[in-house]
Amino acid sequence: MRKNRRNDFRAEYDFSGGVRGKYARRYAKGTNIVRLDPDVSEVFPDARAVNRALRSLLKIALPLGKRHSVSAPGEPSGSRKRA
User: Fold this and answer.
1) What is the widest separation between alpha-carbon atoms in the chain?
2) Chain center to CA of 67
3) Contact, 52 vs 70, CB < 8 A?
4) φ, ψ for residue 69 (rounded to 5)?
């Protein structure tokens, strides 16, 4: 059974004008967080390193017809220099 929490707040906390879940939909839309295991995060220290590795994998894994979507945002396909 859920406890009634109304009496647990201090008098100066006034949530009477609040709207529950007002930003929930917007938050869920723009959130794409992935947790890396510690051993993986040692090899890929930041988002750029992870994205580069995943794009390389996609170039190998995707059929030729879908490879056009693998380039970085704002970068034309095939413009990435190979190391």
Assistant:
1) 64
2) 22
3) no
4) -90, 10
Count of residues in the chain: 83
Question: SS3 of 10, please?
Answer: coil
CA-based end-to-end distance of the chain: 60
User: Of 25, 20, 36, 80, which Cα lies nearest the Cα of 55?
Assistant: 80
For 5, which DSSP code? -
- Rounded CA gap, 28 and 83, in Å? 36
Tens of pLDDT, residue by residue over 7-26, are 677 888 888 888 999 988 88
Reduced to 3 states, what is the DSSP secondary structure of residue 60? helix
Average pLDDT over residues 32-52: 91
Give the separation between CA 78 and CA 41, rounded to whole angstroms.
27
